[in-house]
């Protein structure tokens, strides 16, 4: 199939650039590699050629074609941080927070993440899949073609394995592809807290993760998903969750077992999680709101991708966002994600994350797009297959119903995606107008 006549084709692969395919680091962020009147030749789920419409049409005369004139064509969004799978909702807590309750205090009182844990533990795998699928489809319809998805609402071995199994099954079902993360260290399990069991024993739960859960997950993965690389292991490094020493213990153990690493750092307080991520060569450090100049300097010199989640401060109605300009100045690799979760940011749309990033991280639309595609692919180690339009990569593309890429960021609250092409298959979104019978 020849997709042709795109008003702007964003390759995210600047031609002649030595860093082609690599992440866009620091101030180099935002090279879209735009072709006017561009075309993409797709065969067997993959991109075969990218170029000018006239050239590719002449070279492939009999090819079935998709005319996308008037539209922007770009790589599908990669959402590198979501808590996609959970049961129930926290609408009542949203109201409590509007009335003044604080997120971490609700958690310490046995609510927050723990209230979702209660709902998730009692849900069957069928219920979990049924409640998660519509979120996944909303992500797909708004242009996300690959997403990271974390466990973390089980906090006990059996439920965490059920979440892994449900995520593998959703990945298998498609059309959205998932990169899976084990987040047994999302909160201290209620069996080890004052609110849950009348004893405060974070060390006990940290030990359970290190000595029981991680080895079991490693074994389990080898029998249930032998062809996939091991999942990421992530930790919520924060006061009232896992302190720096506990986070280090979990991540060091995970690393020794061969898991690639991620971390939730500096969402509410600066306790050193970002520098720990750099030291342990984590693939990404995420949130990064209260990040110190020292941590920013460390990120800037590292390969650890800095993943910003602007929907989270927005969802919590907080004032501070990721110091993105400082991270770019330091030379860091910046990516964007939704953080889709029931507590702080129930948002499936990377378009909305981009709109926030333009306003509160002061990114240009071009920078935000690069952070949501090629750099996001690096944040989940999928840059060899997705994140840019280059021959050999998967044919994961978006057709936007706008003639200029800057409509992304500029506009918000509606869906600019007209068609999603996933592994060469065209899905119509048709949002924005009605059809009568
Ligand atoms: O990324 N910070 C921890 N995890 C999520 C929130 C999860 C929840 O509240 O359910 C986050 O913001
Ligand atoms: Fe998160």
Structural features, described:
The protein has helices spanning 53-59, 91-98, 103-108, 113-121, 125-141, 157-173, 194-197, 202-224, 244-256, 273-279, 293-300, 311-315, 324-329, 350-360, 365-371, 374-379, 407-410; strands spanning 2-10, 34-43, 46-52, 65-67, 72-75, 77-79, 144-150, 177-185, 232-237, 262-265, 284-287, 305-308, 334-336, 397-400, 417-422, 425-428. It has 17 helices and 16 strands. It has 437 residues and is an alpha/beta fold. The protein has two domains: 2-76 and 385-436, Urease, subunit C, domain 1; 78-378, Metal-dependent hydrolases (TIM Barrel). Strands 1, 2, 3, 4, 5, 14, 15 and 16 form an eight-stranded mixed sheet that branches. It has an eight-stranded parallel sheet with strand order 6-7-8-9-10-11-12-13. The structure holds N-(iminomethyl)-L-glutamic acid and fe (iii) ion. Fe (iii) ion is lined by residues 81, 83, 264, 339, 341.
User: What small molecules does this complex bind?
Assistant: N-(iminomethyl)-L-glutamic acid, fe (iii) ion
Report the β-strand fraction as a percent range: 15-25%
Average pLDDT? 96
- Residue stretches low in confidence (pLDDT < 50, at least 5 long) are none
Helix content: 25-40%
Task: Please count the beta strands (DSSP E, at least 2 residues each).
Answer: 16
Cα(first) to Cα(last) distance is 30 Å
What do we call the CATH topology of the largest domain?
A: TIM Barrel
CATH architecture descriptor of the largest domain? Alpha-Beta Barrel
The value of Rg in angstroms is 21 Å
Task: Please summarize the sheet with the most strands.
Answer: 8 strands, mixed
Fourth-tier CATH superfamily name of the largest domain: Metal-dependent hydrolases
Category by helix and strand content: alpha/beta
* Number of helical elements: 17
How many discrete domains? 2
Quickly name the level 1 CATH class of the largest domain. Alpha Beta
Judging from the principal axes of the Cα atoms, what is the shape? Answer: globular
């Amino acid at each position: 199939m020849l997709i042709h006549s795109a008003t702007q084709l964003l390759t995210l692969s600047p031609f002649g650039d030595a860093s082609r395919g690599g992440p866009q680091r620091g101030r180099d962020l935002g090279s879209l590699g735009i072709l006017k009147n561009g075309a993409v030749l797709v065969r067997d789920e993959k991109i075969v050629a990218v170029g000018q419409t006239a050239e590719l049409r002449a070279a492939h005369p009999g090819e079935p074609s998709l005319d996308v004139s008037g539209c922007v064509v770009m790589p599908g969004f990669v959402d590198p941080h979501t808590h996609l799978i959970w049961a129930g909702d926290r609408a009542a807590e949203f109201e409590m927070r509007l009335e003044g309750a604080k997120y971490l205090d609700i958690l310490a009182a046995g609510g927050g993440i723990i209230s979702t844990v209660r709902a998730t533990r009692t849900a069957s795998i069928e219920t979990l899949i049924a409640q998660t699928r519509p979120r996944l489809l909303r992500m797909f319809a708004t242009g996300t073609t690959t997403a990271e998805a974390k466990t973390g609402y089980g906090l006990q071995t059996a439920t965490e394995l059920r979440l892994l199994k449900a995520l593998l099954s959703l990945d298998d079902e498609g059309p959205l592809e998932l990169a899976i993360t084990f987040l047994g260290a999302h909160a201290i399990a209620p069996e080890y807290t004052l609110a849950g069991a009348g004893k405060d024993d974070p060390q006990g739960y940290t030990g359970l993760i290190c000595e029981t859960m991680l080895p079991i997950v490693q074994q389990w993965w080898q029998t249930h998903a032998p062809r996939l690389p091991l999942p990421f292991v992530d930790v919520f490094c924060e006061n009232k969750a896992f302190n720096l020493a506990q986070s280090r213990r979990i991540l060091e153990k995970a690393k020794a077992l061969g898991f690639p690493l991620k971390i939730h750092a500096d969402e509410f307080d600066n306790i050193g999680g970002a520098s720990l991520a750099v030291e342990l060569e984590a693939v990404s450090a995420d949130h990064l709101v209260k990040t110190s100049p020292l941590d920013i300097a460390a990120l800037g010199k590292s390969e650890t991708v800095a993943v910003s989640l602007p929907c989270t401060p927005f969802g919590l109605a907080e004032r501070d966002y990721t110091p993105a300009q400082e991270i770019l100045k330091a030379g860091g690799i910046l990516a964007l994600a939704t953080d889709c979760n029931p507590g702080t940011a129930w948002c499936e749309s990377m378009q909305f994350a981009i709109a926030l990033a333009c306003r509160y991280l002061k990114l240009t639309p071009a920078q935000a797009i690069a952070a949501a595609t090629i750099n996001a692919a690096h944040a989940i180690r999928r840059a060899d297959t997705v994140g840019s339009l280059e021959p050999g990569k998967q044919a994961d593309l978006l057709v936007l119903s706008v003639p200029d890429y800057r409509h992304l960021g500029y506009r918000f609250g509606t869906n600019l995606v007209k068609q999603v092409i996933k592994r060469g298959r065209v899905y119509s979104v048709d949002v924005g107008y009605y059809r009568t019978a």
